[in-house]
Predict the 3D structure of the following.
Amino acid sequence: MVGLKLHANKLNKNACKSLIAAEYVGFKLETTPGFELTDTISPEYLKMNPMGKAPVLETPEGSISESNAIAHYELLLVSNTIAGLKNVGLFGSTAYEKALVDQWIDFGSLEIDTNALRWAYPPSSINNLKRALTALNAHLASRTYLVGESVTLADIVLSCNLSLPFYVAMTKEFTADYPHVERYFWTLINQPNFKKVFGKNTPKKEKVKKEKPAPAPKPAPEPETAFDDDEVAPVKKTKKALDLLPPSPMVLDNWKRFATGFWEMFDAEGWSLWFCDYKYNDENQVTFVTMNKVGGFLQRMDLARKYSFGKMFWLFRGQDVPQMVLDEVYDAELYDWTKVDITNEEQKTLVNAYFEEPDTIQGEVLREAKCFK
Ligand SMILES: N[C@@H](CCC(=O)N[C@@H](CS)C(=O)NCC(=O)O)C(=O)O
């Protein structure tokens, strides 16, 4: 098959789909070592894919973009025209199985990848991803592969798409709710043909583990109901814990309504103040993208509205960052949280500056601010 060339940067997960498929059928696809994503804006590249995205497959008949289509094309050519290459059933065998393979390919792209990308690059929709993972988990409970009894392209596509959230977003605690997805992902990712492509960058289970405080003991199991909403339980639990704190003279709603005289009203025994410094500020070069991330974070903080106020610092009921925030708002892990020492005048001055929103704070221009109340 002369003249097929895959243009993509190294370990581009979308390009991995056709590379892994090629391994399965024993086909050698020409690649572009040294390709950088910035190459996608050259006029030559844009002629092949006006979207300016990678991968692109260059063929004698013309170029093809969209990684699923590239892998599909490559396999069709192999099975139709090239004698001697293996037909290992990556499309499924019957028409129905082929449709199921397509079904899972789209599921991988639309239900997993779209939401995983939104999660990795907020504004995002974790709940949509959780919903898809729940459905996938149920499907995999009695199966090793998505379709039939052996690997199909659907498994390759889906596990490449899962590699993003497994690498950058999902903690061990998060994936623990989807044990069949975990087992499926780690089994596939460690298959020889996957490893040949991912090499030493094969995701490792240990790498996704993040140190967290010991989880609270699980409540006694409740009787099963038709719609057992186990996601709500931990939130309810911390809400209850916060509601049981000794009463505070500081009534948040009153203060939120008038928003003046903070220090006179502040009750340091019932509430605490926190600086939160984003750990990856070098990502925040474009104001509207940064504000989108902040917007997503604030949306997810909605569950703690009754117990918090935020404005480049946070005010929380109690003496800790609420457990429901740490458990449910994944962005919380992206910040370093430091309790404000209210006996320290410098720190109080900084809190005041955050309240007042002057043009510059600590020598940095304040471009835009959001308030959570
Ligand atoms: N749906 C496309 C997505 C391609 C895509 O988003 N590629 C990324 C790299 S993995 C890219 O080129 N990003 C550069 C950009 O968005 O400008 C596919 O599956 O091929």
